[in-house]
Amino acid sequence: SIALATLVSTTVNVLRERQVEIRALVNKEACDLRLLRRAIFGMFGTRQHAGRRARALTLLTAYVDQLNRECRPGAIESLEELELSG
């Protein structure tokens, strides 16, 4: 019974540490995306660069959409189908 309690306690602690680490990484990713968006507007903020700005923002949006797809339930199956379809 003591061994089982120790095992359960260790498992819960490891899972909690993983959750905290994942949350920190997600927050860092969100911060990096905000900084990248600001950089895009800084580099391509004028009218003459509107096309480049639109292209960069389109690529950034596509990246965020991919992240969202990867975080949904059933994402592994969807990604495998996408990979197989070419």
What topology emerges from the helices and strands here?
Elements: H1 2-43, H2 50-71, H3 75-85
Report the major sheet.
none
Tell me the total number of β-strands. 0
Please, how many helices? Answer: 3
Low-confidence stretches: none
Radius of gyration: 20 Å
Through-space gap between termini: 53 Å
- Overall geometry comes to elongated
Structural class: mainly alpha
Assembly status: single chain
Overall mean confidence score, pLDDT: 92
In N-to-C order, the SSE pattern is HHH
Strand fraction band?
Answer: under 5%
Report helical residue fraction.
over 70%
Structure description:
The protein has helices spanning 2-43, 50-71, 75-85. The chain is mainly alpha-helical. Helix 1 runs antiparallel to helix 2. The radius of gyration is 20 Å and the shape is elongated. The relative contact order is 0.06.
